[in-house]
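Chain A, query sequence.
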Amino acid sequence: MPGSHGSLLDARADGADVRFVYSPLDALKLARQNPSRQVVFFAIGFETTAPSTALTLLRARQDDVRNFSVFCNHVTIIPAMKAILDSPDLRLDGFIGAGHVSTIIGLKPYGFVARECHKPVVVSGFEPLDIIQSIYMLLRQIDAGRCEVENQYTRVVPPEGNLKALEVMRQTMVLRPFFEWRGLGFITHSALKLRPEFAAWDAELAYAVPGMRVADPKACQCGEVLKGVIKPWECRVFGTACTPETPIGTCMVSSEGACAAYYNYGRYSLASRRREVLQNA
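Chain A, predicted structure.
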């Protein structure tokens, strides 16, 4: 995802030392191997990836590795869902709960969606049959007029979540008062930052990070896609200016995003409908 001055891949092409790692522990290992250099781990992702960052912070403190720091950009799923549900133009009938996030947080946090917002939720796995069964379970709830939280991914997701993972997150991170999301704007208590006890490993404190805002391109309609107002292929820049190689919005930059899925698996079959929509816009 490009920022105001390009992407990390652009910086790497210009000579910066930017590396992909499979685990935060790999970044910590790099710091140990290069004691004269500062290693910053760019921590991103929902509750799925936050526990591994938390464990790495605990290891860095235990081993007193001072040339390692974390730039924490972890986000939380429930406030984002609340923001979407509070949108006046919401056009969603139900939610497929992400199985990897649910492995950590469990089922209880989704309760308000069914109880207060009257939308069904089915936590799903990622295999094709998982998705098909989850959609079937959602449709059965809608047909019966039910709004419940169901767990299709029982082979992986326990109702209470992963208590050890949640505990290490609590030990190392706290909620931010505000965090700005592309396509959704500012959402309260929707992201994580490091606790003061881990200030020695906090890249936000070690480096001057400008508090600048990067506005969403006006042509990008990720917010409308997330709320179900439009389909991805109805976006003005879908498949032209915005592709997985040159993403403009969050729905395209992630391989799990709705726009990326439509682009990879449906753009040709929907081409004629897209032309018709754009002509009538």
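Residues 222-280 form one domain. The radius of gyration is 20 Å.
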